[in-house]
Amino acid sequence: MHMNEIGNWQHVHTFGTDEYRTGERRTHWVIALTFAMMVVEITSGIAFGSMALLADGWHMATHAAALGMAAFAYWYARRRAHDPRYSFGTGKISALGGFGSAVSLAVVALFVLVESVGRLASPVTIRFDEAIGVAVVGLLVNLLSARLLRDHEHEDEPGSGQHHDHNLRGAYLHVLADAVTSILAIGALTAGKFLGWTWMDSITGILGSIVIARWSLGLLQDTSAVLLDAEVADRRREIQKAVEADADNRVADLHIWRVGPRHLAAIVSVVTHEPREPSHYKELLRQFDDLAHVTIEVERCNEDRTCAAA
To answer: How far is CA 111 from the centre of its chain?
Structure first.
């Protein structure tokens, strides 16, 4: 066989990560909006003497940094998609970006909690009219950003319904957290202005930190499941059932992991009395459109041992 003929059995390992995706483009738009609002809030906080606006501005700065991390994850996965050092591609970088966003969300929740408790103990003077106005503008910006990201948070995945783009989901949760804190801030500032309940600012901050922490925990669980290949339990059972439904096949060993936003890889070890070519077993798995990289190992079952025992 000539060496150039081996290409007939080779394939690329990009699995869609080399494409410039809509989620990446929209993340860039949201970064621009978030950064602009951050500058407005920090400037307004200094000008109006409002610690609430200043703190929220720096809070938004942490989200801008997290969104930048999401954009970097998209860029890095696309830039390194053909790098041979990543033997199965850069598909998990999206989940890694989401995991990083989840960690930063947890830090934000802790920051809001500490700041809120501190203000509950030592209240600060708030210029309510200016603070409410800027908070309303911030809410509108956050809702627009959330809408831009929400439309593309899920992507159709062949053969298994929907698949989360965890990187985009992390970015979405960041702007959603900003929107929730803006709503809470508007409510607290309104109550402080008309009812004199200045303590509401701190209480709503504590509630907001709890909500953000719950989102962080959920995203940590989802992304860690992808990074540790714990999300494919259902597909594992379906693949084993498909292989064992043919003849006397038994699956002795099976490994499945994600290699792209909509692609899985699998190594299947089959034990049978009547071994056939690997192509036969790959044909049994053709129904699973998300299986992009399949390796089959076939072992003959010894006459003195049953395949069931194997």
So the answer is: 22
Topology classification of domain 8-227 = Alpha-lytic protease prodomain-like (1.20.1510)
Per domain, the residue ranges of the chain are 8-227, 233-300
The fold adopted by the segment(s) 233-300 is: Alpha-Beta Plaits (3.30.70)
Exposed/middle/buried for 278, CB within 10 Å: 0-12, 13-18, 19+?
middle
Q: What is the pTM of this model?
A: 0.66
- pLDDT single digits (tens) 75-114: 887 777 777 777 667 777 778 887 887 888 788 788 878 8
Return the amino acid letter for 35.
F
Angle, helices 200-227/166-195, rounded to nearest 10 degrees? 170
The rounded distance, in Å, linking the Cα atoms of 310 and 140 is: 62
Give me the torsion for CA of 109, 24, 92, 215, rounded to 10°: 20
Convert 236-259 to b/e letters by CB count within 10 Å (16 or more is b): bebbeebbbeeeebbbeeeebbbb
